[in-house]
Amino acid sequence: MEKEKLILLDYSGTLSISSVHFGRSDVLTEELGRSGLAACGVVSPEIFWSGIVGPTWHEASTTGITYTEAVRRKVRARTPGTIQDSAVRDAVSRFVESYMTHSRIDRLWVPVLKRISSGFAGTVVIATDHYAEATGHIARYLDEIGITAVKCMDSSRDRLPKGAFIIANSADMGVHKSEKKFWEMLASRYAPEGVENILLVDDFGFNEQEGDAYGIIEAVIARKERTVKLLEEVYSAPVTVFFFGMEESGAHGRKEGRERYERFGAWVASAAAVIEGFLEE
User: Fold this and answer.
1) How far is CA 106 from the centre of its chain?
2) Rounded to whole angstroms, how far apart are CA atoms 28 and 240?
3) Helix/strand number for the chain, H first, E second
4) pTM of the entire structure?
5) Which of 2, 72, 168, 228 would bridge 152 by S-S if both were Cys, CB 3.0 to 4.6 A apart?
6) Whole-number Å distance between alpha carbons of 96 and 139
7) pLDDT one-digit tens code per residue, 164-190
8) What is the CA radius of gyration of the chain?
9) Residue 122 DSSP SS3
10) In the prediction, which pLDDT does 14 show?
11) CA distance readout (Å), 103 to 160, 170, 178, 241
12) pLDDT above 90 as % of the chain
């Protein structure tokens, strides 16, 4: 069988920029209050990142425990006994639902993704380190723009619908993208004989929440280099990288409002040009 091309798209910070906005200190503080988590003791972004997300991230992003359950357990452990379990559950559910709603695929990506779905004969994968709930939300957002989504571990190359995108979520795969096993599982199902070449569009954590150390530039560079190395090892193919790191954007509070979104649009346009060239090669 002839080898195909492979397009790998990151999700948070790349396809979805509103999820980054959700994590800004001012927005997050408001969301903690609105959801009821502040009343449960999670009164600041600092507590949220260091006391809730940090300790639960690995388990919640590599198992089916779900973000909701991981956060509920941690919040319950910190919450005074005078607050009922139902209040904690409701607050966590409201918060997670708001986060997932804010984690939509940005509208500026829609024509690009539809172009890929209709005009690319190779394989397209949304590869993301995320929570279990994200797979269903991403699939729904793709369906809303007319693109079929397939959960990575539920299908294989010979059963993949034409134009479908594969969602490879670490919570479903059991490992993060930084692990070779993640890419080996993906390759064994959708490219057992290898691929011709690879295009990777990813921010490598650079655009992540301002309160999260995941976005530190040294770690971003190391993550980029490791990802490329793993892809080359697993697929035995050259990797072209479009680094979706908005150095001059407002992802870290340097620009705001319309100017910030216009900058994001410029990055999407640049990525689209690279993708178009990859499609036409």
Assistant:
1) 12
2) 35
3) 12, 6
4) 0.92
5) 168
6) 17
7) 999 999 999 999 999 999 999 999 999
8) 19
9) coil
10) 95
11) 25, 17, 22, 23
12) 78
Give yes or no for a contact between 148 and 108, defined as CB atoms under 8 angstroms apart: no
Residue length of the chain = 281
Q: For the segment 90-121, what is each residue's pLDDT rounded down to a tens digit?
A: 999 999 999 999 999 999 999 999 999 998 98
* Burial track 248-271 (b if 16+ CB lie within 10 A, e otherwise): ebbbbeebeeeebbebbeebbeeb
For the chain, 281 residues long, the average pLDDT of each consecutive 10-residue run is 87 93 93 97 96 95 96 92 93 97 96 95 96 97 97 92 96 97 97 93 83 70 95 96 72 55 90 96 81
Helix, coil or strand: residue 37: coil
**Tokens 């620009």 identify what position?**
255
Contacts of 237 (CB under 8 A, 6+ apart): 3, 6, 194, 195, 196, 197, 198, 231
Q: What is the pLDDT of residue 251?
A: 42
Which residue has 């449960």 as its token pair? 40
Distance CA 144, CA 101 (A): 14
Rounded distance between C-alpha atoms, residue 212 and residue 224, angstroms: 18
Nearest to 234 by CA among 195, 203, 202, 204: 195
Sign of CA dihedral 183, 189, 192, 197: negative
